[in-house]
Amino acid sequence: MSSLCRRVRAIFTRVPSKPSANFCTTETLGNKRLVKNTSASTTETQLQKLVDEFKKSSKSSRFRHNQSIYRRTVARLAGAKKFSMIEDILEDQKQYYNISSQGFAMRLISLYGQSGMFDHAQKVFDELPELNCPRTVSSFNALLKAGVASKKYDKVVEIFKELPSRVSIEPDLVSYNIVIKALCEMGSLDDALSMFHELDNIGKEPDLVTFNTILNVLYRNGQFSEGDKIWAMMESKNVVPDVRSYNTKLRGMVLDGRVSEAVQLMDEMKSKHIIPDVFSYNALLKGFCDGKNLEEAKTWYGQLQESECNPDLVTYQMLIPLFFEADDFDMAFELCSEAINQEMRLKKEMFTQVVNGLVKQDKDEKACKLVELINSTKYLKYKLELPVVD
């Protein structure tokens, strides 16, 4: 990696420094306001420096080819709600020859979409001819995706209906998949199904993405019989379901209270060499947690640990309350310890309940160990104390 890339990577991934400890220990209201204002001012300065460095580095062709730096920088600014700064760095990119490249132009459209700035994404698309970049179905799809990312679902549907004839673009299957996704997200299930069934009439075969989108919304909304019909149609068209398809069906079965059938479906996945992921296991664990079935929850958590995937935050958010509500604080302690080792950002209240339960059961050693473990972490922004026992 060149020295330029190393320097840039360090700048664009740097975490803003925290206010000094001296500020944090002040007690007066005036000083507390000073802390807040100083912190905000420091962050603003750091982000402006980030923007200035980004624009300076953009003069390098090698830098402009590094998509990950663009994504991380825009995500950081979007997280800080600095939308004018996002506009500053992205509009600055239009001066470079890369803008005539469809891929580079689509990147700007996508980045605006990911930031929730759909009007700006549409403006880039409208300007493409002026920027010597032809508008194609690919850039059209990038615009539709930006609308979905911005949650402007109604605009996605409107653009799909009006824009193609105006700019002489024929939507492809990807276009239809994006619009079906938008219709599902805005709650227009009937319209989504209508467009889905229309595909055959216009000579476009639904693919796995199409089926997964429809299956997800049907099972999620409790329309299990309709979902099973779509599943059968998928198989009849020789579209092979993947792990996402099965996860959707697993969640639907659990939602319908068919947990035992969900277990059988997991076995079917394995027999077809489809490896369950953490979402598959979480779907089953939710069923056992909702049913307060501690033994099955332990069994499937054990299988998850033995699998090729790791538990995630949702896993621990489901399991820890299950066990402390059943007064099994030993298991809750083990889960908390594993969650901390994996740097899961669980809420302070959840850890507090486990610590308090351990103390009530005279398991002071484990309570102390858990408090020490939590307080020794660098990623958690809070500290715990042992409860005072009368």
Automatic annotation (TrEMBL):
GO BP annotation list: chloroplast-nucleus signaling pathway; mitochondria-nucleus signaling pathway
Record protein name field: Pentatricopeptide repeat-containing protein
Record carries keyword Repeat: yes
UniProt GO cellular component terms: chloroplast
PPR repeat feature ranges: 172-206, 207-241, 242-276, 277-311
InterPro entries: PPR_rpt, TPR-like_helical_dom_sf
Top-level lineage group: Eukaryota
Pfam hit, one: PPR
Family: Belongs to the PPR family. P subfamily.
Organism of this sequence: Cannabis sativa
Alphabetical UniProt keywords: Repeat
NCBIfam families: PPR (TIGR00756)
